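Dear Dr. V.,

Thank you for agreeing to look over these. As mentioned in my earlier message, I'm a first-year student in the group and I'm still getting used to reading structure tokens, so any feedback on how I've presented them would be very welcome. I ran two proteins. I've put each sequence directly above its structure. The first is here:
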Amino acid sequence: VSLKGYGLSQSNAVMLVDASGQCGTSTPLLAHRGLVWPQRPVASQGPGHFVAGLPVAGPVGASVAKLCWAPSWAYWSDFYLEVGPFAMVGPDQDRKFNCTFGIPCSFQLSGYGLEASSELWIIGGKRPVMASWKEASLKTSCASARQSDAADIAGFSNPSSPNSIAWPASAVHSL
């Protein structure tokens, strides 16, 4: 998260609260696995640059949370200033898809801010499958890949979970 403003300092901090919550009275939103709140600025990046981690799961949408700011942080009530809504880009999660051997596999993806150039990697058991979607319909066509191909797919790392979806680094968006 990058902020611009007057008088920002290394003592500042930011955190997310639920979209229905209030800055200064709510605890941090913990719905996005991989993000840690609150955060102070990254010293090497300057007082307006905050890194909360790499989100790997959680709700997506235009206003899934509120970003709150504190001039200095000791208590949740210090985060009294609402900077604005926080958006999370990505596919809707916790959906189930089924494919049958010998039959072309297709399914619809939904989510928020999906780009035509985005890709996802579906991992099931020992056979990763690369899929890309078409801009107009987001209809996905799957093609088989060998287990050894996983290390050769640019931008991906082998995830620790055998049944997960991994986004390439190029698909990670920041606000």
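The second protein is here, in the same arrangement:
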Amino acid sequence: DTAIVKYLDEEIEVESEALANLPSIKNFDCKIQGTRVAFHREVNNESVKVTMDINDNVESTMDYDEDDDDAAGNDISFWPIFSVEIKKASGDTMHIHCSIDETNTPEFPFILNEMYVVPKGGDEKSVYSASIENQDEQFHQVMYDSLKARGIDNNFAADLQEFNHVFEHSEYYKFLQTVRDFYKADQ
């Protein structure tokens, strides 16, 4: 166990150099509970909430030229999966499940994966959930326009990706400390 503690001490030292403060996302309040994050704002008598759990992130290994010194240590990216919840004053709530990955464009800054509407007092497990990926481009455009009007746009997607990156690294750093402390407990 001494060898793993020594290794983890060195790894923690290296990772500590890359720690950064969590960025904010403009016009959204942020609440963190463990690995789950909720961003919230009120717009035109609607409640808009975006939630994500970094444990649900999609890991992507990037291919880099082995001779590229700048790429060392930067070969893994974590892409967020997140949900948008829009609650109308009537109590009806639309849920849209989204993700960000390397295929996103300025026109479509995130992927719309699935959506459903829960009427006031309804049970979200009993409503139909539609896959959005098979919808035509016009449907996607009007949905993006609707989200953009609520602050879920290109800037939000870029800020969320940056927040995700910093938060993921912070949690990984804490994880390394926890593993080290586990092995140190009986020494």
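From my reading of the second output: The longest strand covers residues 36-43. Residues 154-184 form the longest helix (31 residues). Does that match how you would interpret it?

Kind regards,
E.
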